[in-house]
Sequence to fold (219 residues):
Amino acid sequence: MEIVELLQQAAPTLMKGVGYTLLFALSSMIGGLALGFVLAVARIVPWRPVHWPAALYVSLMRGTPLLVQIFVVYYGLPSVGIEFSPLTAGVLTLSLNAGAYLSESLRGAILGVTHGQWNAAYSIGLTYFQTLRFIIVPQAVRIAVPAMSNTLISLIKDTSLVSVITVTELMLATKEVIAVTFRPLPLYIATACIYWALSLCFEALQHRLEKKLGKAHQT
Fold:
């Protein structure tokens, strides 16, 4: 009963944290997908001035810790006159990081479409970008859904890192309750279960999307 009362006491603060966590995750998913698509296209076009900067960006974002990237955006950029609120800095950093990983999933999927699809499109008079838009990308998205979904689901857990810049998402909300109740174990377990439940919800959406795209491809 004591644990139940503890969780009831913590519930309002934790639910507020869940709201911020979902806000961070969904906003970063949208931003990451948009950036990831641009980077993926930049890395497959046959123009080196476009290809190399995109490749360098992806290497940089994948090769450095997300926590360091958050510190650079929130604490480092103000020294050169660029300043963001904690919420904006968190969403921006997560989007920039997710975009690099999503671009690799999309690039691999685009390259996985058979070369005959390109030749067929060219034979009916489509340009490079028309072929990419109408023929290649729709097929590539279906191929990339599992890999992209894994990256997007991981964003839910990565949001815990923005607690270091004083955003009251789920992890920081948990720490605030612990500071009052001095009961870390049940609260951390409850928080872990909440993260797990959120991940399961997004996994269910992933499976539904895979089935829907699979049926559309079969028809």
